[in-house]
Amino acid sequence: MHVTSLIYYKLDLVGYHWWLITNGLNWMLKWGTPVFVMISGYFLLNSDLSNNPKEFYRRRLSRILIPYIFWCLVYYVLNKGVASLANPLDFIDNLWHSGTEYHLYFINVMFGLYLFTPLIKKYVLNKNLNIIVPFLFLCSAAYLILYSFFGFPQVSNIFNWFLPYLGYYIAGYWIGKKSPPKHPVLLIALSALLLFLGVLITRKTFFLYTSQEMVLVFVKHFSVPVILAANFFFYIVINLSNKRLSSFKKIANLSELSLGVYLIHPLWLLYFKNTSFFISAFSSNYILWLVGLIVLCVFFSFLSIYLIKKIPILKKTI
Question: How many Å apart are CA 118 and CA 263, to the nearest integer?
Fold first, then answer.
């Protein structure tokens, strides 16, 4: 997603054909972040640990607070220079809002969800989730329309970033309790169709609107196609994973590196996309640029985090 999104506003440079293909890939993968939130809801809202708020907060915050602050500091210095550290209030303001790099907002989303998990488990899960979850999704979709077209204020800090994602979080628990789907292939096809519909509409809105929020309204995390597709995908995966993926247990070892890969991958993406090789490949062989950048970014992200975990003083930063 992050590789293909690099060329979203470079239509004149890459040509309409490649622009359409890469952005179709990008937007059809928009279910990824919502599914991450649903996975968290599935595990944390089913965990007995959340019945003890003090222990829950201690374990959750200790897991992500140090990495979040460390990597926010890294990106802050890279983006603004070492001299920027002379203004700590600006750094704190970045932490309070969306972090110091585009991807770090997701940690703020998780902070809010963690904060309210014990309350959700105590006061929400025993209610009628068949009504609550669709209502939360409806609110998120309405919020998207309001801020995209009518200037409604957007979530902007660590205490409200999570609100539009609340439906996904509780849906992870809700869907996890349902019986397996009888026709998973049909659900996959329907999910792909919904996302493809969002892509087709976005293709038109790119030329219709000047505002980025208006252009991307049908492929945002809270758009109806993405909400439905994410729920369908999660419903399939959560019911089939234990049955079909038991022979791939070694892959689970990669999960120990996943937080670090998430935190570090923009560094490798920035590095490789600015090398002379990829700059020349971008103008002459776009498929080489696209595949090469994805492969190298993923490989070096995992490799670097694997090595960092071997250094005791840095281990807690990932």
Answer: 27
Q: How far apart are CA 268 and CA 272, in angstroms?
A: 6
Q: List, for residues 86-123, the tens digit of each pLDDT value.
A: 888 999 988 888 889 989 999 999 999 999 999 999 89
In what helix (H) or strand (E) does residue 55 lie, and over which residues does it extend?
helix 53-80
Using only C-alpha atoms, what is the Rg of the chain? 20
Cα Dmax for the chain: 60
State CA 206 to chain mean position distance.
22
Question: How many residues does this entry show for the chain?
Answer: 318
Distances from the Cα of 79 to the Cα of 75, 97, 107, 123, 173, angstroms: 6, 16, 19, 42, 38
Please name the residues in contact with 221: beta carbons below 8 A apart, sequence gap of 6 or more: 30, 33, 34, 164, 165
Residue 246: pLDDT band (50, 70, 90) is low
Q: pLDDT tens digits, residue range 196-210?
A: 777 777 666 666 666
